[in-house]
Batch of 4 targets.
Target 1
Amino acid sequence: MRRGPLQINNPLDRRGFLQHAGGGLGAIALASLLQSDGLLHAAAHANPPRPLAPQPSHRVARARRVIYLFMHGGPSHVDLFDPKPELVRHAGEPLPDSVGAVMTRRKVAHNPLLAPVMPFRPRGNSGLEISDFLPHLAELADELCVLRGCHGDSVNHPQSVYQMNTGSILMGRPSLGSWVSYGLGTQNDSLPAFVVLPDPGGGLKGGPSAWGNGYLPATFQGTTFRSGAAPVVDLAPQSAIGAGQQAGMLDYLRSMNHRHSIERGSASQLQARIEAYELAFRMQSAAPAAVDLSDETPETMALYGIGEKDTDEFGRRCLLARRLAERGVRFVQLYSGDTNGWDAHNDVAQNHGLYCRRTDKPIAGLLTDLRRRGLLDDTLVIWGGEFGRMPMSEQGKGRDHNPWGYSVWLAGAKVRGGFAHGATDPFGLRAAEGKVHVHDLHATILHLLGLDHESLTYLHNGRDERLTDVAGRVVTEVLA
Amino acid sequence: MSRPRILLGVMVLAVAIFLTANRPAPAAEPAGEGPVERPISTEERDHWSYRPLIAVDVPAAGVEGRVSHPVDCFLRAAIDKKGIEPLPRAGRAVLLRRVTFDLTGLPPKPEEIREFLDDDKPDAYEALVDRLLASSAYGERWAQHWLDVARFAETDGFEHDLVRPNAWRYRDWVIDALNRDLPFDEFARQQIAGDLLYPGDPQAAVATGFLLCGPDMPDLNLQEERRHVVLNEMTATVGSVFLAMQMGCAQCHDHKYDPIRQHDFYRLRAFFEPADIFRDHPVPSAAELAARQTAEAAVDPAFKLAEERRRELEATGRNQFRDKNPDVQPAIKELLAELSADERADHADLVKRLKSAPKLPALPLGRVLSEGKPHAAHLYLRGDFRQLGPGVEAGVPRVLLTSSTLTGDSDEPPRARLARWLTSPDNPLTARVIVNRLWQWHFGAALSTNPSDFGVMGVEPSHPELLDWLARRFMADGWSLKKMHRLLVTSEAYCAASTPRDREWTAAQTEAGKRAWQRLQTIDPANRLLWHRQPLRLDGEAIRDAILAVGDRLSPRRGGPGIRPPLPPEVTATLLKDQWSVSGDEEDHRRRGIYLFVRRNLRFPIFDVFDRPDTNASCAVRHESTTALQSLTLLNSEFSLRAARQLAGAVVRSHPGHPRAQIEAAYLRAFGRPSTADEVRAAEEFLDSQSKRVRAQSREAIELALPEGVASDDPSALAALVDLCLTLFNANEFIYLD
């Protein structure tokens, strides 16, 4: 049985405090070392806790940061990244009996098959096939590493949103971004480590738990940013309070807190709180600067489709993602799609037509921009939804949810570009070869960040919890 | 436990393998292939938490009998061994603020501070404790501790996060039970089986809401899976909350470290298997029920038939609609569209006829458990609801079985017997677990620091004899929570200083305190021996309530459905439409935090940044993070500014024209102590320089930041006073309790 320092759960205990505040593995290792040496007390004072201090990774990292493009609602792999000639050939027929029983959300198992709505073509030097839904991204085919054998466990939206974000179909586990912040800390001292850019349409199925910290300390939860001058709630003082006025208050507060802290033996948690105000103050100028696009050139803005009707909104968020990544934010997650989003039950052509128009150019612009700035080599870009869609039709032209087989793509971080790993069965129904369960995907993402998914643990209720539970295999095939 | 007693235990075990429910269980399906149940070994049984409570005497009263409080006698025994002296008692102002926040979650009022500081009676502190425990604010504070472990929320979570319109009754039940000091054994029993133990008592039924507080996904594709998930969650929660056993770890396989086999998990679940869990049930008082029955008797039977037929038709339409659109709750129009033309006409006719039916008084509904049909209980292989394992019968964890476990009224349903067993003297855990939690809520850290995991992965108690003594004393005192609170907060350990100095100490005391602090910091820096009081950070609820209270703005209204104060649009933007409809009455927005609506998909922002748990699982210990977002919330939110204007208004009104007295009053209200001359001087300097900065602002802006309810002849000075109040809310001294 393991008896490590993590068992100390008293939040005000110095060891416990160091563990909570120091957060990452480095601090845990340090706490353990110090505890055995009996030096903890001195160290707790010497190092005021910095919850988000950069932490060493387990191994050499290929990626230093992540931009995760989450296509909410479930984009159709068979219409975008997974060409299925058999589906064209057997369109209009039901699935053959040999496929066996299929669990679906809306009883579509016996509906006729629906051919891909748009034709596929080989692209780039690699010949990776991408459909005509995505003309801009298609030009960057050689950057993409498509995982065609992805699969998950639930036909329901919220459960799958949770699983893709937290590894579990249940609500309330820590999200991928939280785990990464916990494991690696942040690279900047004026912005959060994990920033989420929700779709302005709102209504993510599953809600903010998708970027929650679960049982990890709140320090590691995703902070939502929106476009505009005030990206974070309460970032700026109320309009009645001038900047000079606030500076006056902060000076007064600092002297008051300083005296209070000295009288209490300069306890580390009091020091930490004084530092939090310094960070808040820095964030007040850093965050608006990060979201202020006025220093971008017209050419860059155009690259993202900013200024065009369909692409302006998502383009701005993609550009914002690059700016945050540049400023050292460890994990940026963008959502595309309101409550319904990519959930094309009625009409794939109409739904995906709209969402591809909105996102294709901005995403291609983001990849291009990251590449030309030299950021793509150590930035991992992830694209995917909570699941894919069924090869069978629904209501004639739509498709139902399909967690049994779908595509996710990776780019950057020196993954194999112009490459497709794995495959679904001939109809695109189930992952068949090179299967990548959500746990495997997570293990791979952590691996690219230099983290070992089996070592990144947090003791909770007597169990060393992991993002990947008791599973997960690094998909080494994607490593270039 | 002595060896012969262990032997006896093992022998008893060999006879009584597990508690058998006397009610005939429905014939179990043929036992499927399942894991072989490993016996519980003697070593496993000998783990500290499963042993019977030991009867210990209070140790001799510290060094030369200088302490008399039993809690201190236990603590001093360990401290004395090190040859050290704990920090002296904190000054009165510190004690008053500490115990008032602890017992009521609120700051002391200015008049209470003056009164207590002037009270020279030797039992002034004890009298204060009694007054606080008798106030209704006590239940409103301590209910939140319990609601944390009960993972209480008023919505389902998941995609639709639907409102549970009757969930608040359970919250009110907890507040009320605490305020009337319902003995904890009864408190526990009613939450497990109040409906069965007190049939016809609506409040006892409401208590079972505890079991149903967890998240749920009503529109899950397979209702069988939904029920499986909810029952497993319920079982795991009962195990961790009452027994500090992580039963949940055993739903897929045997617990990796603890003597909890997968069979134990599903035997515990079997107690809940017959429960009817997916609909609210009427919880009328006797008077409400009688009124309803009288009214019903007077109704023409034709109306009853019409009503039945109408419901039948709507159910048909709903089922047909949901077959096609499982994601959507059909509107009445949509479900009618599913019916045939004849049926629709029939329905319209019925609705018309029923318009003239007399209105029956509606019975209040509760989110409560009710016993449904007997239901075969099984083990599920790997925890998968599709993989039925062997049948099991209701039984308590075997590691806790003793010879008398099987006694009890044989006619009782299993769940009622579980409730009785949980609080019986045979089970050492329930009392140990709750006194350990009480200790944590008073002292900041529990004696065993994993309060919901007393297994081998947990930490053994720092003072095991004290823990057992407290547990026995608690039971001997009739499981009275208030008596235990009083015992703990009157100990010297609780009243000790948390800091190396105290404003009320004499010069000699200060010198002694400093020396003790330096010495003790090197001997026991982690304070395992409890030689000083741990400073505590207020939680988000206490911070918000205190900010309202110090400006006299906290509403005294109590009870009822959760309140939704206005939120910034960017916060509600992440929700589905209409998920945060603001409560109509402004005064309600200023009620205590315990009455605010608990939405799983949106933690109330100020609570969220200050580490309120997410309600998706029982939370035994809140995190304490320190983040920049907390600072931004307290510094910049509209709520803070508004409250600062109210506090400034209150002190100006009470001391018009006396800036110095206003400063002193603001300090007294915010920090619960008189200010020093130095502090007043610093504040005056701040007001002076700050009013100059204010003058740089436009007139309109200044208008928006003036004290409320005060006429202004010198706006910039008054606006600076608001800034002073806002700064006080942000001070460490406001957020931390010494």
Target 2
Amino acid sequence: MTDMRMVIKGIGVVGAFGSGIDALATAIVDGIRPPLSTAEVITKEGTGRLSVYRARTEGLEEFFAKRELRRIDHYAKMALLAASLALKDAKVSGQRQGTTGIIVATGYGPHRTTFGFLDTFVKEGNNFASPTLFASSVHNAAAAYAAILFGERGPSLTVSQLEMSVSSALLTAWCWLAEGRVDSVLFGAVDEYSDVLGYCWKRYFGVQETSQAEMRPLDFERQSAIPGEGSVFFLLRRNENQGRYGCIRGVDMGFADCGRIDLPETDLLFLGADGMRETGRLYPPHLSGKNNFLCHAPTYGSLPIGPAFDIAIAAHEIGDGAYLETNAEALPEKTIGCLKIGRQGEFSLVMLARE
Amino acid sequence: MGGSRVAITGLGCVCALGPDVPTCAEALFLGRKDRVAPVRFEDSYSPTSPVFQVASPLPAPSRWLKHGVSRTNSLALAAVREALADGGLTSSPGSLRVGVCMGTTVGSALNSTRFYRGYLDRKEPDMSPVSRFLSNNPALFIAREYAFSGPCQTVVNACSSGTDALGIGASWIAAGICDVVVAGGADELSRVTYEGFASLMVTDDEMCKPFDRNRKGLNLGEGAAALLLESEYSWRMRRKPPRGFVVGYGAACDAYHLTAPSPDGQGLRQAIAYALETSKKASAEISFVNAHGTATLDNDRVEAITLHEMLPGVPFLSTKGHTGHALGAAGAIEAVMTMICLEKGRIPASAGFSVADPQLPANPNASTKEIVGSCALSESLAFGGHNSVIVIEHSND
């Protein structure tokens, strides 16, 4: 476990539940399952339907002029909205003091735009490739747009480590803060849904009937995942008094098939199980009676950057308290761990605490 | 990495220059050969711009992967295997915590044209390209191959990915997160990136000419490079003397444009300044600069102006005339070239340069030149306006 202390000064979230940390907290507290969208999946047999947690970005116009967003795709818009909400939540606006780094974690990158770019030369021919789509299809496009629109000239990093993207990127965020390279890190995560992803989903898992779609991630042996999309951003700082949301105190990464994961005593453990049978069945051998665990994927869906939502929920609980199926007495030390196990047995554990 | 020196104890490289570091080191000083062989694109396709392809056979992993190994990861494996052998870390690292930090672009992109054509045609395409993508994350692939237990990070900062992976790996060691980091970059030639750069009209139909008056654009390349980065505790415990050190790393954004560098080079200036600051080196201590030097009009202009103003009189060169632009691997390959030049005490001519550009205030190195000192910069400029610079020092021990 790498010990660290990163104070969470602000949180911005975008998902099917809506926009903003309050919308996410309300969905958790009230047990509201966000409305599912229905996507069409076209196969040689015909058109099927797939339930999807889709995110909307209308709120972005509160922060940017329409012309500034003209060529920006859905992937980057989700990131920009979450980043703007995090800065607003941290009460940071206008000219910022010190150096801010931008770090973005993503499992699959802007693949909707990537396939849009492929369309331009696969369908139209070699001379019709779109330079605009190509430029936006690179994985670091969201970080680049954030730097341009926020006017941030500090270092930038985009990490693509599948389900471990968030935890891995947090390690570097900590390094940047610890070595004084930056004063703040605008740290985020984003993944999107696309028609191609829906098609792959159908080929790998079949399609759940829309009327029956329900994620049951704690039923570890059952495939119940529903694809999701969204973005989460945090404004992280190092040497400050505790913020509204407490601190990220440690990140551990390793392989779950190299022995039992050494889970520390925490008040609560959020499992990153998201209805994927392939990874869900990897969790039970590592759990014991000492861990009270919960799973929030049914609020945001199945997507590689799911752990970022868990960290946001944990930070909100540590800060403002009282929600979930628990109560204040159940969190004496105010420590929450967020555990994620990936497809190849890799795992990460992110620890949050009040101080 | 805040002023600490992170040791380089092993090097590995595969690129158009050759299949390993000694071969690349020799070829680097022999002048440029033509690199116009057809590429291994997924579709049958004849590109018009030359590319720099790796011709040598690539190693297979020790474990079986159901969906196969991507070419990017085969390239990465060749470089990492050589770096580990060079660093004497071929057996189990025991109690050492070894992390992996690899830069790439194509290696993390779900963009198979073969699969996508089948999808568009509703022919229920073979899902292997998608499964291969899901099981071929570069950093995770290397960690699994060698049973390294430390953190994995695949950096996707476009063309600065390789340089950033080295800087981040050094930071992990300086912060005590790892004892050893296998850091570098890998990228294969891909029709998708080829079409993308062609659509931006920044490729040259002839061999690229970095910093030359007649430069027209880049040639794509492929390859991989890996550096074994190590803490002082680790290399002393292993009794493995370093070949050199990563002593500084700076990165900064232009915050200007998605594909064009800031005309005043603001982000690059900031990155160079921070790299020098963290290395505690004065500009007079820099022996040479291995520039990004893609041979595009904008990149070379901004770099030449910035280097002339920030490091006046310091020789610079581009090695992309030897390797092509290997995108996410470029920064790592160029770091290895930088280390090679420091060890040899000389730099080669900047390949492809022959006619000075009167619009540029400085010209690259035009012939093999002895260098003075033991420190050099290697820099990368990327889509998104990101600029990254590392400072490498030759070990005088």
Target 3
Amino acid sequence: MTGRTIRIGAGAGFSADRIEPALDLLDRGALDYLAFECLAERTIGLAQAERQANPAQGYDPLLKARMTAALPIAARNGVRIISNMGAANPVAAAQETARIARDLGLSGYRTAAVTGDDVLDLVMSGDYPLLDREGVSRDLGGSVVSANAYLGVEGIVSALAGQASVVLTGRVCDPALFLAPLVHEFHWAPDDWTLLGQGTLVGHMLECAGQLTGGYFANPGFDDVPDLANLGFPFADVSADGAAVFGKLDGTGGCLTTATCKQQLLYEILDPGAYLQSDVVADFRAARIEEQGRDRVRLTGGAGRVRPETLKVSICYEDGYAGEGQISYGGPGAEARGQLALAVVRERLAQSGIAFSNLRLELIGVNAIDRRSARPEREPGEVRVRVAAQAGSQRDAERIGAEVEALYTNGPMGGGGVSRATRKVVAVASTLIDRRLVVPRIHWEVA
Amino acid sequence: MILRDIAYVRTGDKGDTAQIAIFARSPERYELLVAVVTTERVLAHFGDIVCRTATRYELDNLHALNFVLEGALAGGVTRSLALDAHGKTLGAQLLDMPISEEA
């Protein structure tokens, strides 16, 4: 590779991800940018509910811990941070970040919040057809808690042009967190579909952090990963033509090989020729992956086509309560006693008169996750009964755990280790809206 | 021989859709994958999976197959009450599929 390159690190692949590998990258990674991807599809619905309860909340619960640890190193080394940790409240997240910067003595430190993804009012005032199911947005009615459009790079690029040291967003396409600094640094045109497609591919490779460097890969005896406990997070050196070389820091665990890269390239991709993003329809079919040395892999060949005229919107809505109970059985006949326990709970729940939906009665160790038609025939030494169902109220949902716990003195011999829980169900539906109705805005906080 | 001997897998999800990518351990094994790991065999391996559509994409440059099982996740991670609501264990469950070179 010749010419100037930009080094972008991956600081998190999901909201609860480990912090230490990100700090290591900040400290000795010679990064230009570090991006934290932290916002799963329904997380924003849960965050919106928090914001309704407290207007100063609604951003990522780990933002304070991450920023407190990261900002001193990032400021010292001149690394700019981009993250969707703003969740349902990017402005409050930026205010919190500015507070942390002030406490650290980082006078003048600039944090930008990108807003404009919240389209709740728009979506609930119209009849937007839902994807993957029948009905329109308005049918979801009062149960809806949030509706957020997937923004592209535009807001982040504006914030970077405005000298932001930290950019915090709500809902944006995950790869856009990584594509945005490339567009900013290399002045890629908003209609250069090939470059945007390749940049999206680079972002897609980085957005799950440790999944590129040997996380989610190890299968002992077949696919071994060295020092998985000290798994390092990846970075990419990207040049103006979009070609990228991925790497990880010396001394970290894990491995970055053509195999780990191929796995991440297809991860959660449906049609590899049409990866729908707000900025481009990316095409990964001609991607080339080449090993360049130990823990160094070069990636080229991403392409793209004109961006869609619509943006995807995730609508989060409350869908009753889920109740769950578990109890274990061991020794000879464990499976038969587990099956008896399931039959007993099924009958007692039916007698309760409560309307349960999505009832699941299963044995962990036998058929809870195993979907194979031909399962090995051998009696398990232990099984764990699991009963789960949905009900309209928390009180009704609690009945499920209660009936499982009642198996102690009212069920088969030898049950132990009961656990039970109820939770509010926040479900997600999707729709599409005209992109011209969504305008990103920037809010500044200066320490 | 089983699938694990010639391939490795990664599983993901998008809403109600399960996605399973299967990668040949060598370019030579890719031809075998294409020949024997058909959509029909994958669905038959999962006895009780119901899906709206099942699609196989062939990635010749990556020596990989990408299976997309639309509607396989009982409403998806946000609605399903399954222990593995993402269906993330599905790919690994394919690894004991019998593979015959004569197939």
Target 4
Amino acid sequence: MAVYLDHAATSPIRPEVLLRYTADLALVGNPSSVHGFGQRARMVVEDAREKLAATIGCHRSEVIFTSGGTEADNLAIKGLYWSRFKADNRRRIIISTAAEHHAVLDALEWLESHGPEDHRAELHLLELDANGNFDLSELENFLTERADEVALISLMWANNETGVVSPIAKVCQIAREHGVPVHSDAVAAFGHVPVHFAGSGLSLLTITAHKIGGPVGVGALIVSRDIELVPVSHGGGHERKLRSGTLNAAGAGAFALAASEVRATLTERAERDAALKATLLAAVKEIVPTAQITAENAETLPSTVHIRFTDCPGDSLLVLLDLKGIAVSTGSACQAGVINASHVMLAMGRDENAASECIRVSFGYNTTEGDIEEFLAALPAAYAGARKAGEAR
Amino acid sequence: MKVLAAMSGGVDSAVAAARAVEAGHEVVGVHLALSRNAGTLRTGSRGCCTIEDSMDAQRACNVLGIPYYVWDFSDRFKEQVVDDFIAEYQAGRTPNPCMRCNERIKFAALLEKALAMGFDAVCTGHYASLLTDDAGNLELHRSNEMAKDQSYVLGVLTAEQLSHSMFPLGKEASKADVRAEADRRGLAVANKPDSYDICFIPEGDTQDWITEKVGGKVPGQIIDVDGNVLGKHEGSFGYTVGQRKGLRIGKPAPDGNPRYVLSISPKTNTVVVGPQAALAVSELAGTRFSWCGVAPSQVNEFFDIGVQVRAHGEEVAAQAAVIGGELVIRVKEPIIGVAPGQTAVLYVGSRVLGQTTIDRTVSAVAGDLEALAENIAAGA
């Protein structure tokens, strides 16, 4: 009777990945050691690197394993900013949007507020419309005027709250004409829409295992061969000296296996998710006619549904659904358990009130029609209760 | 019953929740986020508003096997407790923020939200007992553990609020028992220190905190009851009636006895000081009163009660009556340490009868000190 519809937060580990992962945890040897034990562990890592490279569309040496998405984003943004600034100290502008994941946003804000005044980054955040889309011509005009001062562009492939998909290939095309490298956080997109590194034109790409049925604690930054990064953490010089720290062989193996599984099942899952999403949205509109589907007319992930229920606090709705065993999310960041108004919705022009009246329902590889039915069955009572709680505010 | 357990992160609320679970209720733990900028770690004897406290509450819920959520009441807390606290100080009164928090947050905002979401009652770790009289009406009584009795701060509750309240620690608990029980139940907060201070004020400097909140210093005069100027202060809002320390007058009274704040006049920004004897009060009154449970049948003529004017104060014999919309309390023997803004809680035996916020006091010796301060300021 427990229904898990919060795969965008983390997705359950796939059974075959769990088997592989637990078996590899028993491996003896540091992948960097010279002896036979080390070589066998290294083989697991390098098999994984090759397999992941094939899945994501890059060269094996472009895969830098990290501890997850946050570390990869920090390495991408700080590493590229410092390297681009070092090569030419006019390059201090970073182009992004206010709807990025906090792993990106907070790294940007850190670069904007730390270090000597003339070393600090200057943020240029592209405006978002009500559907979460930015204007490509605004980007193009800005680059035409000031490309010499731009260190990098960082734009997520798909938004983790709303599921809105960015036109990454077009961004990269424009950026290339102006010689500006682009990073994309594809943590939310990977496994739900086709993500191909070489085909995208990106210089840097972030992915992580636990959103696609792999374990928590392993991710990767794909770093194009022609890109120089300044390392963020220092140590034994692992991963092309970009990411020191003992390699996580079992994690890498499990990540690569999960990645190849999602690649193999992508088309079929996308079709199934689109159908589940259509069913869900139609039923929600019937139950709550005033419900507003976020970015309904934009391109969104088939696996993510983001809805605003007017006059119905999202946190109360979440609690009432949870007490019925149904796990969804408000999508927004939570600090010490307090759910904040969604910064993504604020960036899309919603007011504080609207930004706190949303929930996100997200599907994963093992989501079934039955899960959707149970969610819909619990929704009317939870909605009514949360509305009342909203009036009591 | 579906019970919402308010979890501060302390040992009392954890054990109260545990007892509610054991009594067979369907319990959900909720921690109230009351500060917009919660500190990371607990410091000193403040005990409810840091992230560490919230983690303690969550851990207790995990151990009890009940769901746990954090509800954000920080906006309402700021408006109705913190801002009220500052406004009361500015008006020369001495507020009790814990009382306001119970009145406006825990048994109002939280209770309303809980009822809206389908809960039947709110459970807290207060030391007080709920009993039923012969007619089936709920009565709030002092805890058997007098040293920890918290019925005073619950005096603001109405019959309706009592009917949705649960105080599992009230009847038999002593603090030592509660700690031992927490330990037995595997609750890590068993040895967490008690909290005493006002949760939203950094340790020990109410005066500096208020000065900052009201936007800086406003110099004024400190005078005695004869109108002699004894010194200067940096804002009358920084003082409370009965205060002895921090007056910075420099010289003692002619008789060598310490001087106390007798009255504060925000209008003239004047602080009146005098001997302790002048603090004696014979009558207190307020228009903001309420009955805790069933109201007494005859309130227009003076009837015998006990009255307590501070959370950890003594109860003294008095008489009370409602006269012209004001609850008037006449104490049998003059009392000291009572100031406008404080709450007077009325008792009959161990039962809490009601309360009023004190608007005015009548000195047992001097006349109207506020009028005196105004006259002196006008003359000068």
